[in-house]
């Protein structure tokens, strides 16, 4: 399977240029306790361009997290590969990590550090020049609306505030590609809306965003395209308009149909 | 922020961890203030204990005034003799004269009732009944036994009895001298030899005693210092990986653009930093406590200052403790790297406490091992060198040896930590065994590193417990020993953790078909035996240890009583097969893991060789079995097969049997110089290694995937038609 063959309109602020994420027949198998082979991800291909948000939809256990972990080089693929901003995840995982920002629902922040210290420590891990890092942190604190709590310990922040710190951490090295695994799962409605607004801004800045979720209504109007996964495979993909049948009203309908088939 | 160059990732990680640690006030309090409180308490208890003990000793040795009551018809005669003796000017020449009471009063009771009353009221300290006929017996050549009926509660009974015994021993001596003079027999008839002991000089503690006290105090302090220093590593080590997993921050660390080794190094710097700070806090507490506590010491122990350790000795001890802190930090990281929560980590760290206690004790008490071997051990080596330095004994080569060995241990432990972090199952797995204790874990291609060393450790314990049950006949005992120490533990562990056994145990043909590696293995086996035998002779000379001597004796009798093929089977083939399966099969595969880097391969080979040396339980053969383990490990990795290793190992074990059978003598008795044998061994080993090298190298790859079954849903991912 190769990358998405369908042409896309290069609108202002819309998808641009060659794919920033190019997933090519990616496979990940595990051995289960009973000795059988679990095909967590089973030959998945798609791509995401710059200035594009792609929603990765799937029920729990569809293989979304495994797929994303392979893209951020936390897991090694069993076969197939992917390129992040032109870098192969198998050949140069460190190069991939320099170009990618990753936030998951389970991502925590250090309780005893402040948001500013958290961002500083991750900026240092990325080897950023101290002056550049300081400027980047000030900008992120302002953009992400963390000014009022930038010097309070993360352990005292609300879930929404913590998730913003997490987002700041993923952005501190200015990655062109962002991967989010259920970023709104632990956040309330208001926090979730604010977070998605921020993601829209990031997309408009020209970043490629891959966003996995099973809360379909939240992202229905915010993604340029969708990839629907079921049992480790891609069962449907396209824009909202491409996916919806005439009788269907929302992406949820298209999702149920794709999964059921 | 002041402008400066970007930090290396390891420093950034260490800095972040240290900042988090410092913010955790409770942990800081426990880590740094505990020693500051603990040592004064220990010192106070020691000083109070010493004072009490000294007062008791002083009290017991102080002479008291004794009022002795005699009863019975012959009491006046005995009383008169005692009074004469008391007042005699030459009493000091008599036996036990120096243990007399400060003053002795002798009085006579009319009867038993009066005596009892006087003792009860404290008027008399002790009542001795003088049996009838005693006076006459003493005048002639007879004897008498005088029962002590009671002592007063007003005096210390032991002290009173001690003085009474002295008084009556002096009386007996005086009477003896009188009789000898009467019979004109010189005293030398009965006392031909006497040891004259010069009286002790001065009231202070002698230098020898003081050194002993310093040695005891140094040992106790070293034990407490070691344990408290190691506890300093606990909190940061538990937090380093298990804590990060619990908080969900480990992923963010692992997606940082640095290798796992940088992460491990950063974590190690942080844990080591806290452990070192703990050591410093302990040293400050010890110094402060000593400065105050020594002033509170009783006067007669103040002399200890005279033999206090020199600054150089203290520096050596501190240096070794600093190295010990590094080993402890690395060990705590290795143990907690695969755990998922702080609770699991703290539980696992109690085993470190136990291991450190045992190892520290090995460095403090006499052991049946050469000091060089102990110096190379983790914890024990550093404690040993610190103890020797503090007690003024020469340290010599042991100091560099223990420092180098500690660096090696740290390297191995950090490699193990990195191995656990690189294991996807270990990092992302769910909780274990929801279905009960006996539910087996998910199958893996290769065992985990921990599972890798498990058979050898279980086997070591197994052989310890069964050794007393094994028969003397080696033809039966050796296969049984292999069964309990190798086969059964391996079978149990491989049954529990299902793995790809063909790959794990390297049950494949050697790379290149084995045409060169197999003859290479034979030559290498012969060469290794010769070089090993000569090395042992050079190391231990002609005086093997008792255990080695006993084993040699049993082997000789085995050779004389058993058919040759059974001897070869029992001594060479069975051990080679079993040990290669466990060490170069199961353990090496587990330690090296999937697609190992060169560093990881080296660490795996060194670690399995070290355990291979240890399980042979013969200290003097440790260097040669370790070297043998290295060669066999290299062979297994190079050829990708267990077969050349088995051949090499079997030939190595069979050479002495062959020599004995062919020449009816041992290698030592052959008329060939050790130099010639060593040269022959090196030549054979070199040619063997060369052939193995030429035999072809196994490319280490991941396991091919299981075949993908056909399913109905082939071609998933089609685009839904646009409406």
Would you give an account of this structure?
The complex is a heterodimer of chains A (261) and B (723). Chain A has 261 residues and is an alpha/beta fold. Chain A has helices at residues 64-71, 93-98, 115-125, 130-143, 159-171, 189-204, 216-219, 240-243, 251-260, and strands spanning 16-31, 37-50, 52-57, 79-84, 87-88, 100-104, 177-181, 208-213, 225-230, 233-238. A six-stranded mixed beta sheet of chain A has the order 6-7-8-3-9-10, sandwiched between helices. In chain A, strands 2-1-4-5 form a four-stranded antiparallel beta sheet. Chain A is globular, with a radius of gyration of 18 Å. The relative contact order of chain A is 0.17. Mean pLDDT of chain A is 86; it is low at 1-12. Chain B has 723 residues and is mainly α. Chain B folds into three domains: 7-61 and 204-430, no CATH class; 63-189, D-Maltodextrin-Binding Protein, domain 2; 447-700, no CATH class. In chain B, 66% of the residues lie in helices and 3% in strands. Chain B has 25 helices and four strands. A four-stranded mixed beta sheet of chain B has the order 2-1-3-4, with helices on both faces. In chain B, helix 7 runs antiparallel to helix 13. The longest helix of chain B has 41 residues, at 207-247. The radius of gyration of chain B is 37 Å and the shape is extended. The relative contact order of chain B is 0.07. Mean pLDDT of chain B is 82; it is low at 201-205 and 701-723. At the A-B interface, strand 1, strand 2, helix 2, strand 6 and helix 3 of A face helix 1, helix 8 and helix 15 of B.
